[in-house]
Amino acid sequence: MNVSAFTTSRPVFTIMVTLIIILIGVVSLTRLPIDLLPEITYPVISINTSYGNAAPEEVENLVTEVIEGSISVIQGIEEVTSESTEGNSRVRVAFTWGTNLDAASNDVRDRLDRVINNLPEEADRPQIRKFDPNSAPILIYGAASDLDPIELRRLLDDQVSYRIEQVSGVASLDVWGGQEREIQILIDPDRLRALQLSLDAVRAAIRDANISLPAGTLEAGNTKMRLRTPGELTSIEQLQDLVVDRRSGVPIYLKQVASINDTHSEITRIVRINGKPGVRLAVRKQSGTNTVEVARKAKEVIAQINSDFPQIQLVPIIDTSEYIERSLANVGRTMMFGGLLATSVLLAFLLNLRATLVVITAIPVAVISTFAMMYFGNLTLNLMTLGGLALGLGMMIDNSIVVLENILRRYQSYNESPRDAAVNGSREVTGAIVASTCTTLVIFVPMLFAQEISGLLFRQLVYVVAFSLMCSLFVALTLVPMLTRLFLAIRKERMVGGLMKHVTASFTGAHEKLYEGYAKILHAGLQNPYTSVIIVLAMLGLTLAAIPKIGTEFMPASDEGEVRVGLVMAGGTRLELLDETVMQVERIVKESVPEMQASVVDMGTSGGRGNSASGRIRISLPPVLEREGLFLLSRLLGGGEDNLEIEIHGYDLEILDMLAKSVEEQIKDVSGVTDTRRGRREGVPQKLLEIDRDRAADLGLSVAQIARTLETALSGTNAGQFRDGSGEEIDIIVKLKDAELLSVEELLANT
User: Residue 17 has what pLDDT?
Assistant: First the structure.
């Protein structure tokens, strides 16, 4: 007894098994992780090292080259690229595809441990990070409030951030904007010079006086007591009365040489939410978690925060989960529409409502069974897997139609009983549909061995196609024969009314005309074989000629309902000028995009590529059908992401710059190019101070001491932390008053 005979003879058992499969499939569907694309692990590791305010050349010579030399011997490395900017070194290590990144990270860490002592003392310990494309924020919110910027940032840091970070699946929460409280000690250069004090001595006095250290233990009988020397400063008055030095026994207080201000840190970054100053919060999810589910839970917590803290309002700016849900829903609707069309065509040709109902029942069972296999196969619900399901949907119907049509043929032509027709009809085509399914599966096997990102992306699609075909084969050989037997056993008059008879009669005439037309074309082709071959070859030639004219791209362009605008200004640009420029761009964007729902602006003058002053504008848009005038936006904003990169290698930076500029000018003339950028940009203007080492040695000074003193004067140096009555820890920054307004000569004279 074959499978079809078994299921046809036991309809109750078959129905129960089908219901169990449906139940498992529905539960699996609710538990499938949802994301836009399959999770991709790039074999890339980045090594980031901070080095104070060092110039790019110093960062390259003292940090980047040391790191590159240490990791160059690691096996499996395909490419090493580096970027040295002011105060920061970034080394990107690309391994061959298939490399175990955990083992590679351990190798990199071991090599760095061997050269850590060769790095400058002022450099931070290198941070090793795996490249994760899924680490981009899934939610961006803006915090708007009438609170003072310092109070707003404190409230977000102390009362809000941890609640969002505790959400299951949230990896981190980035907070940008606002102002952080800071105790600034501004040294008066005239008083400092009059009292013959050094800036470094004042800073050291503050640091040494603001510290708590253990002093050992004492034994009193059978008891041991620990001694501590609490010396932490807890009030501004204590700072003002701090003795920084003595002259002939007379103390010199800090308030005599400096002004002490309870203020905010230097503003190096500006954030605006919908045109108003605010704070940006970016939620990042853990790798492998359900984006939609994590976003939903985070939004629930944020809604509760808005309720608990009426003085602030967290407003959504970017929500990637909505785009994912829209995209998946669109694919789902397309699949349902395709299934309905296939059913309509089937009904039009079979002219049998009972037979059509068999296929209508079989398709959902096969689809739901596929969801169960996806869940147990550790796949996610994404565009690629849904695309594979849509691709497999047509093949699913094929198997059921072949079995159904053969059963109907035996039932109508041989006058067999419904049971015999179901058993014999399915047995006749079992070998054919099994072979057909296996042939289709074999076609996709090479894609399983595809390398690099294409293999990672399309592997899940291949799995889903295979799962759907196996499920359709199972349904075609088990459920379809059983359902066909049951439906054929029902009297035709109970299934077909007068309207259906009228429709059937209409289609019967159309079928006859279609068959007659096809017969004429077939007869003409057989009578004129050479002409037929020429026509086919001509069509093939036209098709091949059209292939080069079809555009090619790795992934199709998509509309995420978001626009990003970026601008970069020359290194050394003041924040005020950058802000004015960004506001001009904001005005242009608002005029061009009246449908803009929300916007977040983030700009700063520290860090970044080449330490350039940069600004970013992110705009959320309504659904496509609700927009107008987007052609203006497209012209305004130019192209999207980089499509082509040209690398020029060499050892002389001046020659490389000259060649890069020449290539850039030539590329601008190419049709279709909207924008060009060079990877190496001019940094912040520099002035070199040559230190007389002999004179410095006579004064008991080293080059490092002089450099640190100048850094303290200009940028400020952390001299510890201040704890107020609330327990909040506030940085104490020591710097020279109005140092940025002094000339180089005045700066040297006052330090």
Answer: 92
Q: Which residue has the higher pLDDT, 350 or 422?
A: 422
CA 136 to chain centre: 3
144 in Cβ contact with 177 (< 8 Å)? no
Strand segments (E) across 672-723? 717-723
**Residue linked to tokens 């179901």:** 422
Please indicate, yes or no, whether residues 407 and 480 belong to a single structural domain of this protein. Answer: yes
Contact status, residue 684 vs residue 573, Cβ threshold 8 Å: no
pLDDT of residue 608: 41
Do 276 and 394 share a domain, yes or no?
no
Residue with the two structure tokens 């690691």: 74
**Neighbour count for residue 680 (Cβ, 10 Å):** 14
Q: Which of 342, 374, 383 is nearest to 40 (CA)?
A: 383
Place of tokens 């539960």: 27
Q: Is residue 38 part of a domain?
A: no
- Give domain status of residue 333, yes or no: no
Whether 469 shows a pLDDT value over 50: the answer reads yes
Residue 202 lies in a domain: no
Other beta carbons within 10 angstroms of residue 711's beta carbon come to: 15
Mean pLDDT of 29-52: 84
129 within 8 A of 109, measured Cβ to Cβ: no
Q: Give the pair of three-digit tokens for residue 292.
A: 């939609």
**Whether residue 124 is found in the same domain as residue 175:** no
Same domain, 486 and 592: no
Give pTM, 2 decimals: 0.72
Whether the CB-CB separation of 473 and 432 falls below 8 Å is answered with no
Cα of first residue to Cα of last residue in the chain, in angstroms, is 99
Residue 374 structure tokens: 């996806």
- Reported residue count of the chain is 751
pLDDT-based confidence at residue 491 (cuts at 50, 70, 90) = low
Distance CA 65, CA 651 (A): 14
Q: Residue range 439-444: average pLDDT? A: 87
Half-sphere exposure of 306 (CA within 13 A, CB side): 14
Q: Give the CATH number, domain containing residue 89.
A: 3.30.70.1430
CB 600 within 8 A of CB 271: yes
Residues 168 and 65 both lie in one domain: no
Coil/strand/helix, residue 392: helix
Range of the domain at 271: 135-180+267-323
Residue 605, C-beta contacts closer than 8 angstroms, at least 6 positions apart: 268, 573, 574, 575, 578, 613
Say whether both 50 and 77 belong to one domain. yes
